[in-house]
Design a protein that fits this description.
four-stranded antiparallel beta sheet; alpha/beta; 30% strand; 11 strands
């Protein structure tokens, strides 16, 4: 496997070419609606809120929440994703602010009611980088604001039931995934192969695998006052082996 080490910035050029084409297609609209419903159900207020989407990708959730009256800002490091998100917002006539940027470098102005990080977009970095992201979220939220953090790659799930290999068709292409858990580094190293017609692209990704307790403490140490855990998009608390974990952290 041509994996990159934990310190390489693999994400900087991962979402380009064929991989970029999967961003807008990997999640069906019905899943986007379900995730938006969940986000609204756990928000700290039933009013229309100022919400940050980090990283936003092509803006699928920002678009859905903006349609419901919320004020959205999205940030992503991928130029192609931001360009598509901006085009989508313009086409839908939605006043969403999408900008190019690093999710570890957020506004830091305590102006947001909520932040969400969905789509398995957490734990790309080394320990300092993941800590920096959580700290940035805390500093960007208003007192009482909430971070909604999708973090399914928790050790209690990965080590017991995570399938090492998979394949499927997405956006008219074939995508193959080959993953290896590196226990000594607590990371999941994954090689993706994208095939469309006569084009083949191979890209590598690396994710930090935290234990449940380790990740909870990481969130609390970033300054958050309280944190709840849920199985994916439900009201049930996380149980070991569940393939889905969302944290609700309140400043």
């Amino acid at each position: 496997m041509n994996s990159k080490n934990a310190n390489s910035e693999w994400w900087a050029d991962f979402f380009t070419g064929l991989a970029a084409k999967t961003l807008g297609s990997i999640y069906p609209q019905e899943q986007t609606i379900q995730e938006a419903d969940f986000i609204e159900s756990v928000l700290p207020s039933k009013n229309k809120l100022r919400i940050l989407d980090a990283p936003c990708g092509t803006g699928r959730l920002s678009l859905e929440l903006a349609k419901r009256g919320h004020s959205l800002v999205g940030v992503d490091i991928c130029k192609e994703a931001i360009a598509e998100a901006q085009a989508n917002a313009q086409e839908a006539n939605l006043p969403i602010e999408f900008s190019l940027g690093d999710m570890r470098d957020l506004p830091n102005d305590s102006s947001f009611d909520a932040i969400f990080c969905m789509g398995n977009s957490f734990a790309y970095f080394d320990d300092e980088g993941n800590k920096a992201f959580l700290t940035a979220c805390y500093q960007t939220l208003k007192p009482g604001g909430m971070l909604i953090l999708d973090a399914p790659l928790v050790a209690e799930s990965i080590y017991s039931s995570f399938p090492p290999n998979s394949w499927g068709r997405i956006a008219g292409m074939l995508m193959l995934r080959n993953a290896v858990v590196k226990h000594e580094e607590s990371r999941l190293e994954t090689e993706y192969t994208f095939i469309q017609d006569d084009i083949t692209e191979v890209k590598s990704a690396s994710y930090r695998v935290h234990s449940f307790r380790e990740l909870k403490n990481l969130i609390l140490n970033a300054g958050f006052n309280s944190v709840e855990d849920r199985i994916e998009l439900s009201e049930k608390p996380y149980t070991a082996g569940a393939m889905g974990l969302i944290w609700l952290a309140t400043r």
